[in-house]
Structures are given as C-alpha cells and as structure tokens.
Amino acid sequence: MLLTVIIPVYKTEQTLDRCIESVLSQDVPGGMEVILVDDGSPDNCPALCDAWAECDSRIRVVHQQNRGLGAARNAGLNIATGDYVTFIDSDDYLAADTFQHLMQRLEEQPDVDILEYELKQTKEGENDLTLTDKVYPDARQYWLQTRAWWHSYACNKIYRRKLFDVVRYADDRFCEDMLMLVQLLEQQPVVATAHLGAYVYVWNDNGLTANATAKKIRELLETQIYAKQVMRMSIFSQNGLDFYRTMMYRQIDLYKASGEVLLQWPLVRLLCWLHQKIRG
Asked: Is the pTM of this model over 0.85?
C-alpha cells in the first residue's frame, strides 16, 4: 500500500526542512512517495525542494506559478501514484511513528476510505483534536457524531486516492478543506478515526486562517450552507443545533466585516437585525 504525501510549499523556507524531515523519518509499511509542490514561492523554497529531491529518491518536485493552496494540492494529486494520499502543510510537521500506526490500521481494515488522526496545536489556548478508534460506515454519521465541521482539515487525514478521481480542490478559495471533505463524503466512503499518531499544527500569524477577510468569511459561510444541504442537517438533528450555531456566528462575522447579510434563514435574518439594533 504505497502512500503519497503531498506537501504544498510557499514562503516557508524557515520551516520546510523540519516538515520534510518529519515525513522522511516515518516508517511506512508498503513504501512512500513525497511530492513537493513549489507554488511559485519567491524565497529559497524552490532551491530547497530541489536539494531534497537530489538526496532522497522518494521525493519528486513540481514547480508552478503561484496559484494558491488548492491548486498546489491538485498538482500533487495529478501525478500521485499511491494507493492512499495525504497532505501536509510545509509549516507543520508530524509526530514520530504517525504513518506507521495509521498504515497498519488501514492494512488491518482495508474497507476504510478515509482515516482521520489526532491534531496538536502549538498556539496556547487552542484546543487539540483528540479522537478514539472508531469506524463510521455511514459518512453522515461521522459528520454528525464527531462534529466534523470543527475539524474538516485536509491535513490530518489519509484518503484512498481513488476518491479524488472525480473531485479536485477549488482554486484560490478560502475553506477549501471543508468543501472538499463534504464532496468526498458525498461519495459515501467508510470513515475511521484513530487516537495514535499526531499532526502538529503550527500557528502562523501571517497565514490564511489568521487573516480572514469579508470575502473569505462569505466563502466559508457558503461552504457551510452547502454542507448543511448535502448532509441533510436539521436544526433538530443530532448535533445539528451546534452546526447551525456555527453558521450564525459566521453570519455575524460577515455582517461585522462588510455589513452584508447572506439571507438564508429567517432565524439568521432576525439575529443580524438584533445585532444591528444592539450595535446601534
């Protein structure tokens, strides 16, 4: 079971070596290929990628003009050959032995299409993602019971590569992770969670998450609305109220950022009207 690791690279020359070293040190049963996608990085990252490829035959490098994170992941998917594929951002890294545990789990449970593992935060005050070992034959059950909208990251999951035969990441779009996860869950995969291994998320004050504009907030809210429709989520469903609450928070964020109200539900319109009255 060959694993393809796709690492988009852009303006991370200070952290790239740490990321790659954490990947290459993994013991992967079945073998591993690593695809570094230089997304037109203006610093020393292109040269670093080429240097790594020269010293390890498992590494391939793609150089392209800057097109964004989604396009960089797609470039890696286009040439991936593994039975499974995973993504790592080049400012993050993996805990030791992560892939060994996860690939053994997939070997023992070959029906699993998506395997999610724990995520550790480096920023004080941010919550780590902790999981138990469980299998969800129903994708909607996974979405609801784990509250997957809170951890729809692309990077703490291993996917059966064939799931991407019919979908690709949206270019230059905020929250492309959640959009892709919902599109993958539409295919009704078997999803599992694992408590072993860890993806270490390094907070970047200059990153996309820390610098959300009104446009990005709108895109996030639109994605959440799409997820609600695909997952047939009612406000009265299991954990449905929690999901509706996140959408209302995003609506308030959008209103604060631009004064725009994305009219979808009477409750949201009422909430924004109340917020305007209180603010006024």
From this structure: yes
